[in-house]
Amino acid sequence: MQNNQINNKKRHVILALLFLGWCLSYLDRMAMNVGIVEIAKDFNLSPSVMGVVLSSFFAGYALMQLPGGWLADKFGSRKVITVAIVFWSIFTILTGMAWSLMSMIMIRFMFGLGEGAYPAASSKAIADVFPKAERTSAQTIMMSSNSLGGVIAPLIATPLLVWIGWHNLFITIGILGVFVATLLWYYLSPKNMQVETVEEETVQKVSFKDVLKIRTSWQLAIMWFGVSTVVWGLISWMPPYLVNVRGLDLMSMGMLTSIPALAGAVGVIIGGQLIKSLLSGKEKYLAIVSFIIMIASLYLLFNAPSVSLVITYQAICMFFHGPIVAIIFSLPHKMFSKNVIGSTFGMINLGGMIGAFLAPMVMGYLIEVFNGLYVSAFMYIIACAVLGIFAAAGLITKKNLSSEAHEGSRDETVI
Question: Has this prediction a pTM greater than 0.70?
Fold first, then answer.
């Protein structure tokens, strides 16, 4: 009993540190989205060029998803997590030292490469540390950090941006990252990560090539593409929209954008509980309904007559993105073997990061082409969300990995 309590305590500490790592990564990203208004003034950037700067991070981030998952499976989560945080923290510091547009784009690209290894490695750590029955809850809690980071980041980044400027903002966040990396290296030791309880789990011999043949992994990747397009489209362009179109000052904008993020964090946690209990095996229906409400909220958002309604509709949209995130990042723990979990999450996250890479750039181009009108940009992210509905409609969540992999090996057209 005492050993069990010690093991639970270790797991909870590790989960808290992984959660902190995600919050840090989100703070780094949000600092750019909050600071882009001032950066655009300093470098005299047009909307389309602003989109390129915002998307340069996601280009590196997306490229690292599959290698990051493979590295986590090959070398273990501890090494990959620590190296990733140190690497991206160095380039966060360099962001504050950028001297030209081109240097900013290259630094943000390298920053994305560093951060891109963290998602799969952190999910791999969940699989290594937690018993199978607890992984869905642990993964859901960890992923709620994305939305919670969206709450905390504007509250931290916006005042710092106003007080010390965007250059010093990035330098400060980068130094914090090195400190967090040191903590994670210390606590993610093999002794602390070892699960001493006996699990009734059969580790199937499934290669990543087999995972590529499984329809579910592709469907989850497409769903994540749709969700990420909406989320990062809003995160990237709501600050300029609220300042330039709705007339808010920087401080007010930063405070208000934390409200939808808080709604998103609550949505992820509630969604995780629903698919763990009441809606287990019915995940696709929850995903479809959530996508539909997201789309309706987006349409109402850009037609809203007041700022308060804009924020309300964005909060509704972010709340219902939560259950979809919980589904995307919990199903692999139920369906896939532990020996390929890093690579599987790398593939799924690649789909999402392609959406996140395209969203700021495409939306910036559309805003510039239509002379500053944001309607076409919002219609783009709505169209990508519709694509997510079609992917969710095909989910067969009750099948396990072995049966679907067997079918995939017999008939590769199942993809």
Answer: yes
Q: Name the domain count of the chain.
A: 1
370-400 pLDDT per residue, tens:
888 888 999 999 999 999 999 999 887 554 4
Q: Residue 306 is encoded by which pair of tokens?
A: 């007041």
Average pLDDT over the chain reads 80
Burial of 90 (0-12, 13-18, 19+ CB in 10 A): middle
Query: Do the beta carbons of residue 243 and residue 249 sit within 8 Å?
Result: yes
For tokens 């990959």, the residue is 80
Q: Do 236 and 54 meet the contact criterion of CB atoms below 8 Å apart?
A: yes
Between the alpha carbon of residue 86 and those of residues 89, 95, 108, 157, 201, the distances in Å are 5, 14, 15, 20, 34
- CATH number, domain of 376, equals 1.20.1250.20
Integer CA distances (angstroms), 285 to 171, 276, 292, 374, in order: 44, 14, 11, 31
Residue 195 domain-assigned? no
> Which residues have a Cβ under 8 Å from the Cβ of 372 and sit 6 or more positions away?
47, 244, 245
